[in-house]
Write a structure and sequence with these properties.
Protein name: Pyoverdine biosynthesis regulatory protein
Number of domains: 2
Distance between the termini: 30 Å
Cofactor: Fe(2+)
InterPro entries: AlphaKG_dependent_hydroxylases (IPR050411), TauD-like_sf (IPR042098), TauD/TfdA-like (IPR003819)
GO molecular function: 2-oxoglutarate-dependent dioxygenase activity
Order of helices and strands: EEHEHEEEEEEHHEHHEEEEHHEHEEEE
Number of helices: 9
CATH architecture of the largest domain: 4-Layer Sandwich
CATH superfamily of the largest domain: Clavaminate synthase-like
Strand order of the largest sheet: 1-2-3-16-7-19-5-4
Organism: Moritella yayanosii
Radius of gyration: 20 Å
Helix content: 25-40%
């Protein structure tokens, strides 16, 4: 790699390259180093999967948006959402707005669909008082560490994600699809191979069969690429699971996942997969101004529990299709 003369580029941890940490030799705004930053991304992102820009005088949604847009692709809207977040405008969103005491498991953004962003950026404006990291993991490593029999089984069967919207249990369909027009929802579903049905109360159920593993279009490496462990009912705490199933039938849960043929996924297999995810997790504390850029297929991300104020925003670009 041809090193830039204006940036320091080193792995954050001695034991692995992910993430590469990029800092300025002399301070300044990240926008002052765009040519060097683009060179680092071009030469490192597909190899390492993630680059952390740190130590620049860049804090705020507008500067973050400018940096993400500088890579040449329009920022994507968060379509077919699975979690609550706030649209800050022009392709910038808050990260998932789950309560601070809840941990969000590792996942690749929108791996529960057939359409996903190839690039994703996170910008820390305000670090949490305690914890609040955005842990990451190499999806290639996860793929290689999962038992080949499990991997082959998931790959051959694929996965069926089932979602029920509203009823006070999950996001309403109007929020997920960004419209109150049922016909517009139906057009989106038909265009994206999503099965849908409306019940008598006007609520919506969807199901979609998606990949469990995928091949990166540029590196041609295989990656573990799904959200089975996150959507499955076993991801819920036991008491919440018990309460939900006392109120609704399993088929009416806000979300769940099955093998592609509709057969149940074994809890024990998902527990083994979660063990691999934990083993591959890399965690580091946020600093104000940090921008983390990930190849969304090569690297998964999550969110730790936290206390205090925390503001991390996100942008996505370059759809896979």
């Amino acid at each position: 790699m041809r090193k830039t003369t204006n940036l320091r580029i080193n792995p954050m941890f001695a034991e692995h390259d992910l993430p590469k940490i990029v800092t300025p030799i002399v301070g300044g705004r990240l926008s002052d180093y765009l040519q060097d930053a683009h060179q680092v991304v071009e030469e490192e992102l597909l190899r390492v999967g993630g680059v952390l820009f740190r130590g620049f005088d860049t804090i705020g949604e507008e500067q973050f948006q400018e940096f993400a847009r500088s890579f040449g692709s329009p920022l994507l809207n968060y379509e077919f959402a699975s979690t609550p977040r706030t649209d800050l405008g022009d392709g910038v969103y808050t990260t998932t707005e789950y309560p601070a005491h809840q941990q969000i498991p590792l996942h690749n953004e929108q791996a529960y669909t057939l359409n996903w962003p190839m690039k994703i950026w996170f910008h820390c404006i305000t670090p949490a008082e305690t914890e609040g990291e955005t842990p990451i993991a190499d999806s290639r490593l996860i793929y290689n560490k999962i038992d080949p029999k499990i991997r082959q089984h998931f790959d051959s069967k694929k996965l069926k994600y089932v979602r029920n919207y509203g009823n006070g249990l999950d996001l309403p369909w109007e929020k997920v699809f960004g419209t109150k027009d049922k016909k517009q929802v139906e057009r989106f579903c038909l265009a994206n191979k999503i099965n849908f049905e409306w019940n008598l109360d006007g609520d919506l159920r969807t199901s979609q069969v998606c990949q469990a593993v995928a091949q990166h279009p540029k590196t041609h490496e295989m990656v573990w690429f799904n959200q089975a462990h996150l959507f499955h009912i076993s991801n819920l705490e036991a008491n919440i699971r018990e309460v939900l199933l006392s109120v609704v039938d399993e088929e009416d849960l806000p979300r769940n996942v099955y093998y592609g043929d509709g057969s149940p996924i074994e809890d024990s297999i998902l527990a083994e997969i979660r063990g691999v995810l934990d083993e591959c997790t890399i965690k580091f504390p946020w600093q104000a101004g940090d921008i983390l850029m990930l190849d969304n297929m090569l690297v998964a991300h999550s969110r730790s529990r936290f206390t205090g104020a925390r503001k991390v925003v996100v942008a996505m670009a370059e759809g896979n299709i």
